[in-house]
Design goal:
The complex is a heterodimer of chains A (922) and B (293). Chain A has 922 residues and is of the alpha/beta class. Chain A has 5 domains: 102 residues, no CATH class; 117 residues, Rossmann fold (3-Layer(aba) Sandwich); 157 residues; 202 residues, Rossmann fold (3-Layer(aba) Sandwich), CATH 3.40.50; 242 residues, Domain of unknown function DUF4159 (Rossmann fold). Helices cover 28% and strands 20% of the residues of chain A. In chain A, the strands form 8 sheets. A 7-stranded mixed β-sheet of chain A has the order 19-18-20-21-26-25-24. In chain A, strands 35-34-36-37-40-39-38 form a 7-stranded mixed β-sheet. In chain A, strand 25 and strand 26 form a beta hairpin. Chain A is flat, with a radius of gyration of 44 Å. Chain B folds into 2 domains: 236 residues, Rossmann fold (3-Layer(aba) Sandwich); 32 residues, no CATH class. Chain B is elongated and about 85 Å long. In chain B, strand 7 and strand 8 form a beta hairpin. In chain B, helix 3 runs antiparallel to helix 4. With 293 residues, chain B is an alpha/beta fold. Helix content of chain B is 37%, strand content 17%. In chain B, the strands form 3 sheets. Chain B has a 5-stranded parallel β-sheet. Chain B contains 9 helices and 9 strands. Classes of the chains: A alpha/beta (922), B alpha/beta (293). Strand 3 of chain A pairs parallel with strand 7 of chain B, so a sheet runs across the interface.
């Protein structure tokens, strides 16, 4: 490659051809332009005129320049110019291994890294070196291929939402072991991890190693916790440095369900510190809607943390039957449960009827036996909508008849009378302990302390469904906790009291854990190995390296302890995991995570990602040459007058289309185009009957009527449209003309719904049976029968023959007849109010009604209105001049009809003019 | 615009902007007939128009004594002016008229037809009798005549340049010739002298396209007539400009002198100016004293 003024040329000798350009100049200059043929009537005056000089016009100098530039661009383009020719780096011709960390830490600068890789691939391609890729987060044996093959696959590389683990490094070392000698380019994410030095040593044995890494500091966020009434957020950075302020965003859904930023906070890294903290105080409703926290400006999985039940505090309503007596707090039936729930849930007191409208998550009924009908019904509804009712037994339930014979809808099981007590002073036996929880129980995995004993309980009646409803039982097998599902909610009954009277259960830690398992209280903040023992968690949404959530698909479930303990990796991607009603977020970082920056040994050169890549400009120059030549074509045509002459206009348009690309077609859907054409101006419409001739005449008729309206009135309609009842919107048309043909299809039910809406909302349909000379309505003609059939489902009011004082007779013209091609007087409109009476001295009855929704006639108006493309009447009407008169009256009827639709009973109001004048005192 | 209805519609639009055209009849025998419609101004006729105070110069016979007896002032009874005149039109339908230099400008023939029909409508509305020169459509009054005129105007002529039709001119009538007058001027001369012989006076409307006035051509060009039968090649069109314009001016001057000789009015109308301007001029030329004098 030869470098001239910062631009490299792969074939510099071709540039010598530039010397030939001046010769071209002389050649092109000598050729005169072709003659133009012009039509010109004044030629008669030109005859006999001679040219003064016979030398022809020369090609203009700027056109010559254009052509020279085009040729020069071709020559230079073929010489292979390259922008930013890279000064040769370390020579080498063996294969190159690209090692990528490929972790979330590099996600924010991933595009720059892609560009740097692309630049190196370009260089490798030019040197003819083969390339292999090794991504440490997804180690695989590298395959050495041509660089161009890799460039196509470059876009497929994505960062993983985890760091390379020790096992991955071991796998990577094993993969590298089997390869020969090669040079290495290591694209680092600037974070250190275990076993990295071993791999580096191994690679250095095989060849030279160069490192590329961004100077950007990696930021990460630790999982959010809820303490002291605020969401606590801790941020880390890899290298300590100057003081830096970052913005943390809490993302979630607003009440309308749209994702948005619910709150922001700023956190500051002090100078020299690698950790920053901030807290966000939010009302619990808002806090419950938060789905994740992000660091603004960062696009990596590590810079965001997902929120789970730990931030979502449940609202628990506590209700007991007994009025708590003052001073006896420890005896309150709700004391222990309050203690158990207070740290992790929001508690509500009040009566049941006050609480239900607040829609709490859980309602606890401690020894409440009976509920009134007025309370039970809304409570049942609340449970069916997903509420959880937790009931505790007690003396009242034991004494009541609730759920004795039939199962109470608000109890999970039937109860035996009286309950039992064991181990008391008056009974035999020892207080019973708890048996281990079974597999199916939500409590499975919890350890049962020995000191939990039960001395009294209510007993469940043996029932076929009892076994499946028991979720905890005593050592002798009697049910201790039972549960049934109702709708989307559930009812749980503890067969002991919520106090320590009947058992020691409320005193033990197990009680708290059971509450957590039942999702009465949320526990994610204290998710420990022990608490999650025996649970299985299913991934629902997983993070990718960039920090965006996607559906987990069919990833396998994870054991509870593993979810907390194991490092993230392909088997345990960070994301949201659910088990039953509980949701737990596994974030990229755990509370103990730290960020360590990489340190490279001094013999490894470290470069930044910002590189000006070599840029071949051959394509640009050749494109420029083609553009110049195209411009030359246009200019030459313009010079010889052929560009814009009328005969060439289509060709010119075509050329312009080819040059500048077809305009974006189909920008709008057909429906939008229809709506636009129908609404930009007033538009008349006719129903498409399917009979081409009838449709054609209907359209021509409306065209004629539109023209007449335009010419005579201030109604200036745009060209009429055919309306398909099934697909088109009717609301755009003030009036629809509906010619009846015997064979037209009956509209579908949906179309009738549209038609009825149209009629009710002020539209008008002009039905035309077009057979007034053979039938005067009734079922005596096929068209009449078809009309009856079509109109039966329509919401049409009572009709009457058009009365002589109807407002249609005077909305624009004064009319007595309503002829079309036929001249029948049978035109029917909505019947007038039977009470309307003619007032003495008034020419019209006071018919102050709306627009008639239908006008039915058979005069074939469209034929009378129809005009051809030139505006001449399409069909003959009547005979001679009287026929023309009839056509004129038909137009007047059409105008009156459209005026009636548009102005309603405006003309009818004029009957009040004498009364108004009288009132004004004249 | 070869469609009679469309042509009539646009002519009606042009004519709608004007009051009825008042053509002054030359009081010569044979050419004056009483029209059906009043002129809406005082003149000779049968119908009462108005009383006005008598002025110096009014003959005593003109004083209406019945009205004057009601007061001290003497009144003259005026009658409504009622006369009709024949106007004959000729519009050049030759191929040369079907030229326009720009899509935005109408063809010369379109403009000529609109102008002449608009004038015809105005005259017709005023009760005059309008027709074509030649024997095909003699002057008549009434609305159907307008339709017939429109029909006749829509017939194209295949000839490159058609000479004015001068046969069957009614003596002492009025005439309107509309053309680009690009063809042989002898035809025009013959027509005008013949008209002058018969006492026919009229208007010569010279319709030109703007490019015919400007000659904006350059470079090597072959000029062809609209029918393609005549052509002229030049290597440098811009060199011809001055000489072409000189010839055009000569043509105009010749027409003007012909008109001066025969008592006609001569006017130029360019197709890029509004048709209203042309009609206004035609209105003035036909209306007035220039011809009548």
């Amino acid at each position: 490659m030869m470098v001239l003024g910062g631009i490299g040329f792969t074939a510099p000798w071709l540039l010598l051809a530039l010397a030939a350009l001046p010769i071209l100049w002389l050649l092109l200059r000598a050729v005169p332009p072709a003659p133009i043929k012009r039509r010109f009537p004044g030629v008669a005056l030109l005859l006999g005129l001679k040219d003064d000089e016979t030398v022809s016009d020369r090609t203009p100098w700027w056109l010559l320049l254009l052509r020279m530039l085009a040729v020069a661009a071709i020559i230079i383009g073929l010489a292979g110019p390259v922008l930013n020719p890279e000064a040769e780096q370390a020579e080498g011709n063996g294969p190159i291994l690209f090692v990528l960390d490929g972790s979330w830490a590099g996600a924010t600068r991933w595009p720059q890294q892609q560009e740097a890789i692309d630049a190196q691939l370009t260089r490798a391609s030019r040197l003819g070196r083969t390339v292999g890729f090794l991504t440490l987060t997804r180690p695989d044996t590298p395959v050495f291929q041509s660089a161009d093959a890799w460039r196509n696959r470059l876009a497929g590389l994505n960062p993983a939402p985890w760091q390379p683990s020790e096992e991955m490094l071991v796998t990577a070392q094993a993969a590298v072991e089997g390869l020969g000698t090669f040079d290495t380019l290591w694209f680092s994410d600037t974070l250190d991890y275990a076993n990295r030095d071993d791999l580096l040593e191994l690679l250095q044995e095989r060849g030279t190693v160069e490192a590329y890494q961004t100077a950007l500091n990696v930021l990460a966020m630790l999982p959010a916790t809820y303490e002291d009434g605020a969401v606590q957020l801790r941020m880390l950075r890899a290298t300590a440095g100057e003081e830096r302020e970052i913005v943390v965003q809490a993302q979630g859904r607003d009440p309308a369900g749209n994702a948005r930023i619910l709150a922001t906070a700023t956190a500051t890294f002090e100078q020299g510190a690698t950790e920053a903290e901030t807290a966000i105080v939010l009302p619990s409703e808002l806090r419950a809607r938060i789905t994740r926290f992000d660091i603004a400006g960062q696009r990596s999985a590590g810079a965001s943390t997902l929120s789970d039940d730990g931030l979502r505090r449940r609202e628990v309503a506590l209700i007991s039957a007994r009025e708590s007596r003052e001073g006896l707090e420890l005896l309150s039936p709700l004391h222990y449960i309050e203690q158990a729930l207070a740290p992790t849930a929001d508690l509500i007191d009040g009566s049941l009827s006050d609480i239900l409208p607040a829609n709490p998550d859980v309602i606890v009924l401690a020894d409440v036996a009976t509920l009134s009908e007025g309370e039970a019904a809304p409570l049942t509804e609340w449970i069916e909508n997903g509420g959880m009712l937790v009931r505790f037994a007690g003396p009242r339930i034991a004494a009541s008849d609730i759920s004795r014979i039939d199962e109470d809808p608000l109890m999970p099981v039937r109860l035996r009378a009286g309950g039992r007590s064991v181990g008391g002073a008056m009974s035999w036996g020892e207080p019973k302990g708890l048996s281990a929880f079974s597999n199916a129980s939500p409590f499975f995995g919890l350890t049962v302390p020995d000191d939990v004993t039960v001395s009294a309980q209510v007993m469940a009646q043996p029932d076929p469904t009892l076994a499946e409803r028991v979720i905890a039982s005593l050592s002798d097998g009697t049910p201790l906790v039972t549960r049934k599902n109702v709708g989307q909610g559930q009812i749980v009954l503890f067969h002991v009291t919520a106090t320590a009277e009947w058992s020691t259960l409320p005193l033990s830690g197990l009680f708290v854990e059971m509450m957590e398992r039942l999702a009465v209280s949320s526990s994610a903040a204290s998710a420990t190995v022990a608490a999650l023992e025996g649970t299985t968690w299913i991934p629902r949404r997983v993070l990718d390296g960039f920090g965006s959530l996607s559906d987990a698909g069919s990833l396998p479930g994870i054991d509870g302890p593993a979810l907390v303990q194991d490092p993230t990796g392909p088997l345990l991607p960070p994301g949201l995991y659910t088990s039953g009603d509980r949701t737990l977020a596994r974030n990229v970082l755990t509370a103990e995570s730290t960020l360590t920056p990489t340190s490279w040994p001094s013999d490894v050169p470290v470069r930044g990602l910002a590189v000006a890549p070599e840029q071949p400009v051959v394509g640009w120059l050749l494109s420029l040459a083609i553009l110049l030549l195209l411009a030359d074509v246009v200019v030459s045509l313009a010079l010889s007058g052929r560009l814009l002459s009328r005969s060439n206009a289509p060709a010119t348009a075509l050329a312009a289309l080819m040059l500048f690309g077809a305009p974006a077609a189909d920008a709008q859907t057909a429906a939008e185009a229809f709506a636009l054409s129908a609404t930009s101006e007033l538009t008349l419409g006719h129903v498409i009957t399917g009979d081409p001739q009838v449709d054609e005449i209907a359209l021509a008729g409306l065209t004629g009527l539109s023209d007449t309206l335009f010419f005579r009135t201030s109604v200036e309609p745009s060209p009429p449209l055919g309306v398909n009842l099934e697909t088109d919107e009717l609301a755009f048309f003030p009036i629809l003309y509906w010619p009846i043909t015997p064979r037209q299809p009956t509209p579908s039910a949906e179309a009738y719904v549209k038609l009825n809406t149209y009629l009710r909302s002020g539209g008008m349909i002009l039905f035309d049976t077009r057979d007034a000379d053979t039938a005067s309505f009734g079922a005596s003609s096929p068209n009449g029968r078809k009309l009856q059939e079509l109109a039966a489902p329509l919401d049409i009011p009572a009709l009457e023959p058009l009365p002589a004082d109807h407002v249609i007779t005077r909305t624009f013209y004064l009319l007595q007849d309503f002829p079309g091609r036929h001249n029948s007087r049978d035109v029917w409109v909505e019947a007038a109010d039977p009470n309307a009476e003619q007032i003495e001295g008034m020419p019209f009855r006071d018919l102050n009604d709306g627009v008639t929704p239908v006008v039915i006639g058979g005069n074939d108006w469209a034929s009378a209105w129809a005009v051809n493309a030139g505006g001449a009447p399409l069909l003959p009407i009547g005979r001679g001049f009287s026929g023309e008169r009839q056509r004129e009256i038909a137009y007047r009827f059409g105008i009156n009809l459209v005026m009636h639709v548009l102005t309603g009973n405006y003309k009818s109001d004029q009957v009040h003019v004498p009364a108004l004048l009288d009132r004004l005192g004249q | 615009m070869s469609d009679p209805l469309a042509l009539r519609a646009s002519s009606e639009t042009e004519a709608a902007a004007f009051p009825a055209l008042l053509a002054r009849a030359e009081h010569l025998a044979g050419a004056v007939l009483l029209g059906a419609h009043g002129r809406r101004r005082a003149g000779t006729g049968d119908d009462f128009w108005q009383y006005r105070p008598a002025q110096v110069g009014d003959s005593r016979r003109a004083i209406d004594y019945r009205r004057s007896a009601m007061g001290d002032t003497e009144f003259v009874r005026e009658r409504e002016w009622q006369i009709a005149q024949s106007v004959m039109l000729w519009v050049d339908q030759g191929a040369s008229m079907r030229f326009t230099s720009d899509d935005a400008i109408p063809q010369k023939i379109d403009r000529a037809r609109v102008l002449s029909l608009a004038a015809a409508i105005l005259l017709n509305r005023g009760g005059e009798r309008v027709g074509l020169t030649g024997t095909e459509l003699p002057p008549r009054s009434g609305r159907p005549q307008i339709l017939a005129l429109a029909q006749m105007f829509c017939r194209d002529d295949a000839a490159e340049y058609s000479p004015p039709e001068h046969r069957a001119m009614i003596p002492h009538a009025r005439a309107v010739f509309i053309s680009d007058f690009m063809g042989d001027i002898d035809g025009v001369r013959t027509a005008l002298t013949k008209a002058a012989d018969r006492g026919v006076r009229g208007v010569l409307c010279h319709v030109l396209d703007p490019s015919e006035e400007a000659f904006p051509f350059t470079g090597r060009t072959i000029f062809q007539s609209m029918g393609g039968t005549i052509s002229h090649e030049t290597l440098k069109a811009n060199d011809l400009k001055d000489r072409y314009l000189a010839r055009l001016a000569e043509r105009k001057a010749e027409l003007q002198s012909l008109c001066a000789l025969t008592g006609w009015r001569y006017g130029i109308h360019h197709t890029n100016t509004p048709a209203q301007a042309g009609l206004l001029w035609l209105y003035g030329a036909l209306d007035a004293r220039g011809v009548a004098a």
